[in-house]
Design a protein that fits this description.
By secondary structure, this protein is mainly β. The chain has strands spanning 4-11, 16-25, 27-33, 36-41, 50-55, 60-66, 71-76, 82-86, 90-92, 98-101. The protein has a 4-stranded antiparallel β-sheet, with no helix packed on it. Strands 1-2 form a two-stranded antiparallel sheet.
C-alpha cells in the first residue's frame, strides 16, 4: 500500500526530536484523551482504516483501532465519547473516472 508515517516526540527544552513512533499510513489529525494520543491514519494517497493509540507515558503504540476508510478527523464530545470522521476511499482509472468508491454509513 503506502509507507507508514511517524509521530515525533520533541524535547521542548532542547528543541530536538527525542523519539520517533511508527504510526499508520498518512497520519492526520490527533487528539489527546485519557493519557493517550489518538492518531487518525488517513491513508495519504492510498488507504488506511486505523487509529493508532499511543500511550504518552511510554511513547509507544499500545493499540490499533480499525474504523472506516481513511479517518481524517476526530473530536471528543462533552460525554468524553470520541467521534471519528472517515472520508472513505475513491480509486480512479487513468482518465480520472471513479472505478471504486467506499462510503461509510456508521
Amino acid at each position: 500500500m503506502g509507507e507508514n508515517g511517524v509521530v515525533k516526540v520533541v524535547d521542548l527544552g532542547s528543541n530536538t526530536v527525542s523519539k520517533t513512533i511508527d504510526a499508520g499510513i498518512g497520519p492526520e489529525q490527533s487528539l489527546v484523551a485519557d493519557g493517550k494520543l489518538l492518531v487518525c491514519n488517513g491513508g495519504a494517497y492510498t488507504m488506511d482504516s486505523t487509529i493508532s493509540v499511543i500511550d504518552l507515558s511510554k511513547d509507544q503504540v499500545v493499540q490499533t483501532i480499525w474504523v472506516g476508510d481513511n479517518p481524517k478527523e476526530l473530536v471528543a464530545d462533552m460525554n468524553d465519547d470520541i467521534w471519528v470522521l472517515c472520508y472513505g476511499y475513491i480509486k480512479y482509472d487513468s482518465n480520472f473516472n471513479i472505478i471504486l468508491e467506499t462510503r461509510q454509513n456508521s
